[in-house]
Amino acid sequence: MTTLYLDFGNTRLKWRVGDGEIGVLSYECFEQWFPGCVSEQKVQVVVFASVLSDSRQSPVVGLMKQFVPEVKQCVVTEQAIGVRCAYQELCRLGIDRWLAVLAAWSHSRSACVVADLGTAATIDVVDDGGQHLGGYIVSGLHLSLRGLLAGTDNIRPDSAGFESANLRPGVNTAEAVYHGALHGLVALIESSYQNLLKSFPKAKLILAGGDAALVGSHLSSPHVRVDDLVFEGMQLLEKAALLIDA
Q1: For the chain, which has fewer Cβ within 10 Å, the N-terminal or C-terminal residue?
Q2: Any residues with CB less than 8 A from the CB of 106 and at least 6 apart, and which?
Q3: In the predicted model, is pLDDT for residue 70 greater than 70?
């Protein structure tokens, strides 16, 4: 039975058939792409995770049900695969964060900090017993830059961007902007991890997301990078029979 996994993010969607390669798609292309993918890959089951609003998600789910007999959704639960959620209102925790936490726990089986670095940067903390302790949500690197530019008139950096950024103080406006955004994110990850180490000396730091390689290159703490945490989390929920019918 062929399963198509879909991760509906804030600005784009990612997809994977079975354990294959991860693809990236714009929402504008989804309606045309989906029927062809189902036919070509002989998809019988769709498993998806979504951070979209109900108004955006409903037509997408309706389209999927037209072509696939079984459409399953990942949702946050009080506990799963040994992890207990910190949130009392489960619906307030983004499913992408929950899936990343579950996958990180499956890798570490110990206290960990998991940083998923995309459009938004999320940093979640889990203790040695599998208790999710909560986390942080901040703007990702590029969203941070766009927010700064939108709220100011005279800050207009013209350098190459984050690829050449470092943690030193900038000696011109462009460097100050890019270095500042990078420094802020690195500092939050480092402090979250160092705080956890005080209670759990064997805690691990796990990075994921599109900016994981860039941010990771500036971290002083040891860490591992796992590119497909969200998809791993989907498969864990699927194996644990914790999916719901969409």
Answers
A1: N
A2: 81, 232, 236
A3: yes
Q: What is the CATH number of the domain that holds 145?
A: 3.30.420.40
Last residue of a domain, one of 56, 73, 90: 73
Has residue 241 been placed in a domain? Answer: no
Position 239 in a domain: no
Rounded CA separation 45/184 (Å):
41
- Whether residues 159 and 121 share a domain: the answer is yes
Of the residues 19, 54, 96, 245, only one is catalytic, namely 96
In this structure, the answer to whether residues 171 and 111 fall within a common structural domain is yes
In a domain, 240, yes or no: no
User: pTM of the predicted model, to two decimals?
Assistant: 0.91
pLDDT in tens, 124-182: 999 999 999 999 999 999 898 888 877 775 666 665 688 888 899 988 888 888 899 99
Residues 135 and 68 in one domain: no
